[in-house]
Amino acid sequence: MWVRAVLWLAAAQALLLVLALVHPASVNLLVPWPASPLNARFIASLYVSLGFGVLLCSFARAFVEMRIVLVGIAFVTALLWLLTVLRLVLHPGELSRFPLFWLLFYTVDPILVGLVFLRLGWGGSTRGPAPLAPLWLAQAACFTAAGVVSLFFPDAARSLWPWTATEPQVQLYSAFFLTLGLTSLLAVREPHWPGVRWVALMMALLAVLVIGVSLLHLARFKDEAATAAWLTFFSVEAVVFGGLFVGRMIRPLRAAASP
Predict the structure, then answer these.
(1) Verdict on whether the full-model pTM lies above 0.70
(2) Tally of CB atoms within 10 A around 159
(3) How far, CA to CA in Å, does 84 sit from each of 88, 90, 114, 219?
(4) CA 17, CA 37: separation in Å to the nearest integer?
(5) Which of 26, 44, 160, 255 lies 20 to 30 angstroms, CA to CA, from 177?
(6) Cβ contact 13:105 at 8 Å
(7) What integer pLDDT is reported at residue 125 of this predicted model?
(8) Gap between the Cα atoms of 144 and 223, Å rounded
(9) For position 132, what pLDDT does the model report?
């Protein structure tokens, strides 16, 4: 039960930004940096897709279904904490107020997840690459590359970004991209669908939300080629991972219905 409580806490923090999908100024409920409506809705898409996946994951029956998601929670919150501290030190006048609750949340979350793994371990070993390993490897490569560029070369990332974004924003995005890359890499070694189902759901939901937000603000996009690449990538994500998740849900129902 206490593991579920850790997941509920993380989900509650992320789902605070559901309102920002409709009312972009509400992004300030959690995120300390100002954001344009498009950036605010993109940030909300990142948080809501992951938060919804975490919430559903909390009702899983076995720890094996939770462990990759828990690693993702610890990684993204620890990286956001570190990025925030570095920006406070290197850019002291950047924020109008000290982000106390932001830092508090992201101090507590990695500690709680660390205690979970200290108590339960990894919860069983994997048995070699899963059938979906090539898909997860491609996913890991794409998001890790985007995350590394956004984190260490923010000016280059901003020039490639399909709309106008600030340096703090692209570095915030890098934390999520690197987390998606890490969770995808961990999924490579999961031999059974339950171990990766919630990661697949998060990918599909993120893609759907990003497409919706992008189409809503299409006039803000800067370059036709970048826009086409962006929409194509997330459309493929939505179809592949959404189809995979729905298909795996339908399969047991068909098996149960067959004589």
Answers:
(1) yes
(2) 11
(3) 6, 10, 21, 31
(4) 13
(5) 26
(6) yes
(7) 62
(8) 23
(9) 87
